Amino acid sequence: MNPMAYFQRVDSNMARADTFEGTTWIYQPKDIGKLTFDARGLGCRKLHANPAELAKPVLIGLSKTAACNIYCMFAVSKPVDSELVSGENLQFGDSFVTVFNTREFLSRVVAASKDAGFNYLKAGPVEYYDGEKYSGETGRFRKRSMFAYQNEYRIVVEPGVDTARKLIVGSLRDITSEVLPLSEVNQILDFSTKSAQRAGLTFA
Q1: Domain extent at residue 77
Q2: Under the phi-then-psi rule, with left for phi > 0, alpha for psi from -120 to 50, and beta for the rest, what region is 136?
Q3: Has residue 46 been placed in a domain?
Q4: 21, 50, 111, 185: which is deepest, by most CB within 10 A?
Q5: How many domains does the chain have?
Q6: In this structure, are strands 127-129 and 142-144 parallel, antiparallel, or unpaired?
Q7: 64-94 burial by CB neighbour count: b if 16+ within 10 A, else e?
């Protein structure tokens, strides 16, 4: 489980790199009425900026937002009749494992996190927003729509540390597939509407 700061600085992997990670709010210039920087404590004068002259949105990141470690997965929450996994996801590695019983998987993760002494755990899907239009809270479970192909589901734990943390959940062989080649994911997996109907699954 990598620290959130890892995703800000991992320049060698475009699929994982996101300079917006760790931000708490984003404000587009058009939504800012007045912007003042008061750094008089550093011997500088108070600076008033004209929002219309801002080249990019204003990002505000609180240390408590970034103080966590994250585990990321690709999630399928509804039938997909087109290509299931975008080719851009092939940047994440050469293999994948499918979790068949997600409820049991999360139950084991929660139990393991308690055993490891974590005092906070939250899991859920990532919401995607338009990075050129959206103003508001971002936090740990929102990313720009340019990453929507990731269909990301996150597990977040605290206290966070600056290095990767390992969470030992035990064997998952009874609820997962074997290790499979990621390059063949769209040939191996079928989450189409017809398959869901044959399996007796319903979706809201």
Answers
A1: 2-19+65-133+141-198
A2: left
A3: no
A4: 21
A5: 1
A6: parallel
A7: ebbbbbbbbbbeeeebbeeebbeeebeebee
DSSP 107: H
Distance CA 94, CA 184 (A): 10
Question: Which pLDDT score is estimated for 13?
Answer: 57
* Residue among 134, 137, 112 at smallest CA distance from 123: 112
pLDDT in tens, 47-83: 888 888 888 999 999 999 999 999 999 999 999 999 9
- Polymer length in residues for the chain: 204
CA-closest candidate to residue 145, choices 170, 167, 127, 162: 127
CA end-to-end span of the chain:
31
pTM value > 0.85:
yes
Residues in contact with 131: Cβ distance below 8 Å, sequence separation at least 6, in sequence order: 20, 26, 57, 144, 145, 146
